[in-house]
Amino acid sequence: MEVASSNDYRQKIPIEGITWELLNRMVTEKKTLEPGIGGDGRVHYPFAEGVLGPEADTRAWIDDMVGLGILRAYSTMEIVMCPTHLRADPIVQLECANCKNRSMRNTSLVEHIHCGFIGDDGRFKKDGVLQCPNCKRPIASADDLRVSGVWYECPNCLSKASSPRTVFVCREEKHDFSTDDLVLTPVNSYTVVESMISVVKSRLVLYPSLADMLKTLGFDVSYPASVKGRSGVNHSLDMYGRKDGGDIALQIAVDSKPVEATAVMSFFSKTFDIKPKFAILITIPSASEGAKQINPGYDIALVEDLDGSGAVQKVRALLLKE
Ligand SMILES: [Zn+2]
Ligand SMILES: [Zn+2]
Ligand SMILES: [Zn+2]
Q1: How far is the CA of 6 from the centre of ligand 2 (A)?
Q2: Please, what is the angle between helix 17-28 and helix 194-216, to 10°?
Q3: Which of 2, 22, 163, 218 keeps 20 to 30 A from 51, CA to CA?
Q4: Which residues constitute the domain of residue 205?
């Protein structure tokens, strides 16, 4: 697949192998790469690791794809990590500031709307019936009470606090760390960039159907193809069909705007050396004026198609005309 100028990154995507498999699955299964915390306390991308393997390989792949502009991070969350072991799965506990006990209990503070009394919700229960401990009126409905806050109580020293101390227990060596020394690490979710989705989709549909059509015309088809030119140099092409009496070289250029002249020149640098009978450049959505202007001298047939869906028929018609 050949593309011009700013979108050169698309040439770097193989149409085989695990990169293709993963991008293909992300597009067709409408998946994004969502982080999760594994049993080892590290951040994982399970869907990607299912295709790419170990975490380190997956992370390197994600970085590559972001660098090429194929994936983008679309949401970031800061997660708490142990400063020593960089594990992201600490146990969170609440600690009594007074006696360090970690069995804090939370109770709701409830207000009796009728008399304004505020107390623990437990105090409104007497002998199995709900009644106000202050004015002794029975509580007839939930509307009589209003929750006015939450308190934490230490069952050991009975001290109360509205916000007890938060402590983290790292699962490695079971050591503590506090909000003062934790490490906050940004963790991203990733999605395939919009323009790549159309590239992937057109490849998914276009390549196999082009190959099938060429086979019915008697070509022995391979894609992607590596073809030796007269100079002895091997050239990579999107598709190549061999047939007695005339080979065909095919290149597919996809862009978000009309495909530029560089795609024609790049294809010509290969067909000039290979000299197939047919050289066809499929341009999606169209060929730019510049591409059309330089083309006549290059003996390349330009096929324009808005989204690739009509390209197979157009190539077929072109070949049958010969
Ligand atoms: Zn730790
Ligand atoms: Zn206490
Ligand atoms: Zn009352």
Answers
A1: 64
A2: 110
A3: 2
A4: 196-321
Q: What residues have their beta carbon closer than 5 A to ion ligand 2?
A: 96, 98-99, 101, 154, 156-157
Calculate how far, in angstroms, residue 103's C-alpha sits from the geometric centre of ligand 2.
Answer: 9
Identify the CATH number of the domain in which residue 256 sits.
Answer: 3.40.1350.10
Bridge partners, 46 (sequence order): none
Evaluate whether residue 218 is within a structural domain: yes
pLDDT tens digits, 47-76? 999 999 998 899 999 999 998 888 999 989
Domain count, the chain: 3
**What's the rounded mean pLDDT across residues 232-245?**
93
Q: How far apart are CA 55 and CA 42, in angstroms?
A: 9
Is 163 in the same domain as 212? Answer: no
Of 64, 28, 14, whose CA–CA distance to 190 is shortest? 64
Shared domain for 212 and 292, answered yes or no, is: yes
Ligand 2 center to residue 109 CA distance, Å? 19
Decide if 191 contacts 71 (C-beta within 8 A): yes
206 and 245 part of one domain: yes
* Residue 9: pLDDT over 70: no
Q: Which ligand is nearest to the CA of 99?
A: 2
Distance 129 CA to ligand 2 centre (A): 31
